[in-house]
Write a structure and sequence with these properties.
Elements (H helix, E strand, L loop, with lengths): L1 H133 L2 H49 L10 E5 L4 H7 L4 H10 L2 E3 L6 E5 L3 H17 L4 H29 L7 H9 L4 E2 L2 E2 H19 L3 H10 L14 H11 L4 H9 L9 H15 L8 H16 L4 E7 L4 E6 L9 H15 L7 E5 L10
Parallel strand pairs: 7-8
Antiparallel strand pairs: 1-3, 2-3, 4-5, 6-7
Helix pairs in contact: 2-8, 4-6, 5-6, 6-7, 8-9, 8-12, 9-11, 9-12, 10-11, 11-12
């Protein structure tokens, strides 16, 4: 029993020990399993991290690959462009090579021609020396000098032509600037004068008082003033007519004063006319002084001042002479300042150049001669007298101031609007100009344009070669200068046109 119990106890102890061992072993297995799980989790995380790193490396490699592809494409394009450039340069070099070969051939041809010319010249020289050997020293010297004179004349002619062309271009440019500046800076009004002056009357009854008993008042008025007094059916108007503008102005003022006063009889007429003449002389002197002061001229003789004032009532082609003289003085002075000439001499001569027109009604002679005589008598300088004499080419201009006065006078008279002339006279001059041009051989048509400043000529191309155009234009201009009178200058333009016409059927 005890053995049985012992056995049981041993059995129980063995079971218990086995249980303990099993429990111990089971705990260790769970711990190992947990450790293995932790290890697997850690390995998984490391794998995932490694996978992400690998993915990043793969992405970076792909980007690098794409950049490499892009760079390769760009390099390919650049290589293609460079290849095209190299091909173009090769073609250009080939063309230049051909051109150089062509030039080389030309140079060889020229060299052969020069060699041939040298041989010809040498033969000619040998022949000339042989001929010279047969001549005497004087004959040889004369012949050699003749040859060199001919060569020098040709060379000098070429040089002179080139110099004249250059000087002409420069002078035209400078002269154009000077003239344009002078015209722009000069602005003078031109007063159009008529041969008839009108006087307004207060009523029709005044006409009878002006005529007087049996016409004695009007006869006395006309005898005293030297004008024609016209009283017609025009209501409340009397007209004073005279070729002399001074007389006309005296009569107009005297008649206005008599009408305003109301006392009209022969004695009163004589007194009023004498009074108006004295007042007008004073007014003319003031006008002359004002004109001289306006253009900056001092020291003029009182008689010259008086004559300048009288130019206030003189006109030419509707252009007031005093205003024209001031304009010439302005323009000549401006041009003199531009080119360094004597400004005072140019202005003085410009103001006095038409002085003689104040004397043409009283004395015989041209206005140039009368003006020079008057200016010389009253102490003007020789250079001023010369410029006055040269403004219409009565003498050739020998000084810059004379040329400037001449140019300024032409500018003032010829610029548009300065002068007027009757339509009939203008048309007659235009027709005469066209007829004169049509008389030349080879001229088909002639047209006067720009108010007579230019004549345009159509020539027959079959009858007139192109080389003769310059000569024909010169001949036409010379004939116009010789046979026609005109202000300013006339431009002659020749047109020669070849036409080929055919019709398509």
């Amino acid at each position: 029993m005890e053995q049985a119990l012992l056995l049981v106890a041993l059995l129980i102890a063995g079971v218990a020990l086995g249980t303990v061992v099993w429990v111990i072993r089971g705990g260790k297995s769970r711990q190992q399993l947990q450790n293995e799980r932790d290890e697997q989790s850690r390995a998984r995380r490391e794998a995932e991290s490694r996978q992400k790193e690998l993915e990043k490396e793969v992405s970076g490699l792909q980007r690098q690959l794409e950049q490499s592809h892009k760079q390769v494409a760009e390099q390919s394009i650049e290589l293609n462009r460079q290849a095209i450039q190299i091909e173009a340069r090769s073609q250009l070099l080939a063309e230049k090579d051909l051109e150089l070969k062509s030039r080389l051939e030309d140079l060889r041809s020229q060299e052969q021609a020069l060699e041939s010319a040298r041989q010809t010249q040498a033969e000619a020289h040998t022949q000339a020396m042989a001929e010279l050997a047969e001549l005497s020293p004087e004959q040889a010297r004369a012949q050699i000098l003749g040859v060199w004179e001919t060569r020098l004349e040709k060379d000098i002619a070429k040089r002179i032509h080139a110099a004249q062309t250059y000087i002409q271009e420069q002078s035209d440019l400078i002269a154009g600037k000077i003239l344009a500046q002078a015209i722009q800076r000069c602005a003078v009004d031109h007063v159009v004068e008529n041969t008839v002056a009108t006087v307004n009357l207060p009523n029709e009854a005044m006409k009878g008082r002006i005529i007087g008993k049996e016409g004695r008042n009007i006869r006395s008025f006309e005898l005293t003033t030297g004008v024609d007094l016209m009283i017609d059916d025009t209501p409340e108007v009397a007209m004073v007519s005279s070729f002399d503008p001074i007389r006309r102005e005296v009569a107009r003022r005297a008649l206005e004063n008599l009408v305003a006063d109301g006392r009209i009889h022969p004695t009163r007429i004589e007194e009023e006319v004498a009074k108006v003449k004295a007042e007008l002389d004073k007014y003319l002197r003031e006008e002359g002084e004002a004109a001289a002061l306006e253009v900056g001229i001092h020291g003029l003789h009182p008689e010259i001042i008086q004559l300048l004032g009288r130019l206030r009532y003189r006109s030419s082609y509707g252009q007031n002479i005093l205003q024209h003289s001031k304009e010439v003085a302005y323009t000549a002075g401006i041009m003199a300042a531009e080119i360094g000439a004597d400004i005072q001499t140019a202005r003085r001569a410009g103001l006095l150049h038409d002085l003689g027109k104040a004397l043409t009604y009283e004395e015989v002679g041209t206005h140039t001669a009368l003006g020079i005589d008057a200016a010389r008598r009253w102490g003007e300088k020789p250079e001023v007298l010369h410029a006055m004499a040269a403004h219409h080419f009565d003498v050739q201009p020998m000084t810059l101031e004379a040329i400037l006065v001449q140019v300024a006078d032409t500018l003032s008279a010829a610029r548009p609007g300065a002068r007027r002339e009757p339509v009939e006279k203008f048309m007659t001059r235009m027709n005469a100009l066209e007829k004169l041009v049509m008389d030349f051989k080879g001229v088909e048509k002639a047209f006067v344009i720009q108010a007579g400043r230019e004549v345009r000529v159509i020539v027959d191309p079959d009858a007139l070669p192109e080389a003769q155009l310059e000569r024909l234009a010169f001949e036409i201009a010379q004939k116009i200068e010789q046979e026609l009178e005109y202000p300013g200058q006339i431009k002659v333009s020749l047109l020669r046109e070849m036409r080929a016409t055919h019709y398509a059927r």
